[in-house]
Amino acid sequence: MVEFFNWFFRFGDGLPSGEGAYSWQHIVCVCVYMTAMVGLAVLLGLLNRKKEDKKKNLVLIWAAILIDGFELIKIIITGVQDVTGLINVLPLFLCSIQLITLPVAAFTRGRVKDIALDFVVVFGILGAITGTVGAAQNYAAYPALSWPNIVSGITHSISGFASLYIIISGMATLHWKNAPFSLAIMAVFAVIAYVVNVVTGTTNYMFLMSHDGTPYSIVWEMTAGNPVAYPIIVVLLFVAYLAVFVFVYQEIVTKGKICRWIGGKIVRLFSKKQTSPTAEPCEEKSAESEVVEEAAATETPAEE
């Protein structure tokens, strides 16, 4: 029992490393987290969609308590293991910002709440995917069922759950007027993260110093690891993602233009399939006869 405790919470020396990125253990864990995240968001979102805002918000309150609760436990365990390790658990990753914005969205009102809701919607789902599917470094460093990976999977999944729930329950606004504030929040954390990375020389918050086995490796290869170009492009990707997300949401959900366009294409496609080629000449002939009859009816009789 003691050995399992030490293995699970990562106490002691000589502990085994992870099974590896995209191993079957990694894939199974991701499937479990994603299924729970999407399933609960759809279920609770649909159940609360027609309810008053207070009841809708209750789900966000619980999500905020859980995400900060799990993170607090992780910080305590990290501090017990090695107090110097606390420098590595600061809320300076993009997905870690949800530890602040989700409670703000849950416990405030008015414009502040709308801005926080928008930030959670936009970056919550991104953090959930990158923190589970793209967490290659975690599953290479720790076993899939050890405490670091389980807590990381849960907190990232809560972020994704909150994002989907806000949309499905009808709490999302995603106005363009809130986008600059979301960018400002992200920019402030990016600057702080970069400064901490430079000062410590050991941290890699927001992956601004290196890709660390994440999909940012594409940017790293493009820039050949340039210490200036790489972090700038990473931050610009955040900005581009925000703009695309809000634009697509506005076109699909708010205006419905894309949905109507796709629906029109589908209707026309099926209409063509249902029309028999052999019936077209008859239809054309019928149309011509109707034109002739209409013209004859409007002509003045010769005798008159």
Helices and strands in order, then pairings?
Elements: H1 2-9, H2 24-48, H3 53-81, H4 98-107, H5 110-132, H6 136-141, H7 147-168, H8 179-200, H9 217-223, H10 229-254, H11 257-274, H12 280-298
Would you kindly provide a written description of the structure presented here, covering whatever features stand out?
- Helix 8 runs antiparallel to helix 10.
- The longest helix has 29 residues.
- The C terminus is likely disordered.
- The chain is an all-alpha fold.
- It contains twelve helices and no strands.
- Helices cover 71% and strands 0% of the residues.
- The radius of gyration is 28 Å and the shape is globular.
Topology order in helix (H) and strand (E) letters: HHHHHHHHHHHH
**Helix/strand-derived class?**
mainly alpha
Beta percentage is under 5%
Tell me the total number of β-strands. Answer: 0
Computed over alpha carbons, the radius of gyration is 28 Å
Distance linking N and C termini: 112 Å
Overall form: globular
- Note poorly predicted spans: 279-285, 300-304
- DSSP summary: helix tally: 12
Question: What share of the residues lie within helices?
Answer: over 70%
Which sheet architecture does the biggest sheet show?
none
- What's the overall average pLDDT, rounded? 85
Concise synopsis of the structure shown:
71% of the residues lie in helices and 0% in strands.
